[in-house]
Amino acid sequence: MIEIVEGDATDIATIMPIMSDAFDPAFGEAWTAAQCLSALAMPDCRLLIAKADDAVLGFSISRWVLDTEELLMIGVVKDRQRQKIGSLLLIETIKNATIGNRSQLFLECRDGNNAMDFYSNIGFEPIGRRKNYYNSDDGLRPDAITMSYIL
């Protein structure tokens, strides 16, 4: 059974293998441990961890400002993707944002990333675009798509 638990800075080492596994290195989307620690040092930032027994299968990092929540990062170990773990993490993030009286949940996703379908199926809508936001190994500069979920 998969359990979603709150994590903290002491859990960063347990999510770093997932960070390396879940994100395509061609786009430089994975964060370093220092970036994760820096995010968690911000007020109102939350780390959620998906576990089965003692195995860490996924994580999400979100933060809130005023009445909005932003999903900063979500990742699931590659061999367990498409098994609803990401959905469980995202649903828990939505639940926490709702309890916190947030009005919207935002995220950004690389244009062309298969995760856009995942977010759309949950109910996120594209609301903006940052041109040439990402760098890639092949020299292309994909846009970032901003998406919103109304709570």
Description of the structure:
- The protein is α+β, with helices and mostly antiparallel strands and 151 residues long.
- It has a single domain, classed as Gcn5-related N-acetyltransferase (GNAT) (Aminopeptidase), CATH 3.40.630.
- The protein has four helices and seven strands; from the N terminus they run βααβββαβαββ.
- The protein has a seven-stranded mixed beta sheet with strand order 1-2-3-4-5-7-6, with helices on both faces.
- The longest helix is centred in the middle third of the chain and has 15 residues, at 85-99.
- 28% of the residues are buried.
How would you describe this structure in keywords?
single chain, 151 residues, alpha+beta, Aminopeptidase, 7-stranded mixed sheet, 28% helix, 36% strand
SSE order and pairing:
Elements: E1 2-7, H1 12-22, H2 33-41, E2 45-52, E3 55-65, E4 68-76, H3 85-99, E5 104-110, H4 115-122, E6 125-130, E7 144-150
Parallel strand pairs: 4-5
Antiparallel strand pairs: 1-2, 2-3, 3-4, 5-7, 6-7
